[in-house]
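HUMAN:
Could you generate one sequence with tokenized structure?
ASSISTANT:
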Amino acid sequence: METAVSGASDWTERVDTTVAHPARRYDYWLGGKDNFAADRESGDAIAAAFPHIRTAVVENRAFLRRAVRDLVRDHGIRQFLDIGTGIPTSPNVHEIVQGVAPESRVVYVDNDPIVLAHARALLTSSPEGATAYVDADLREPERILADPALRSTVDLSKPVALILVAVVHFLPDEDDAHGIVRRLVDALAPGSYLVFSHATTDGLAPELTAQIQAGRHGPGKLRDRAEFAQFVGGLELLEPGIVSVAEWRSAGEPEPRPTFDQVAVWGAVAYKR
């Protein structure tokens, strides 16, 4: 069993409890306790405009579980890079994939010091496998890819599943979101996969779309299906392609399934030849 934490500093000095953070707001919607008043206020404001937000985050998390399970079980992937990990929510990626293939290796990346404080929960690897945590920002893909903990945990010359689940929509256009995803995918070996989900303007209430696009809930950009498709352009989509996260290989999930308007998140898994 190998574990590592990279980029760690005194997390207590970096926590600003007066400003909502996406990871802590997500934790609040999932019923967690690692959040502050600002996160709850922001979460409640979004829920007032989009009452199904908790359904959306639960379905997004379920999409992640199904996607990584299928990749390790059916496609032989043994290396995973999860950027925008969020506060640990069991089962975490390493628990899912190492439950199928104990030798699997997982690197988690996030920029929230609260996530860093919980990194030990993300580093409970199986004896045969390995996990690492990198304290870094998605907007710095080259720094992430060059990080010693990442390099010692996964071999980028071999297939890796890159997980960008409900994180890229926090990058506004000026951050060059498409360019960041492209640089990360370009660094992966042939045979790798991209697990991708993104909140969308499609089916969303106009008032919430306006709030988010105006930055009322922090920086970010909702994108429609056509913009989503650009992120996976040049890759081969696994069936069923670009669909609601609630519908991606959802056989066996509780019925009835949520409608697209209740989720408003596109999801896909794509293969790099």
Notes: The longest strand covers residues 193-199. The mean pLDDT is 91.
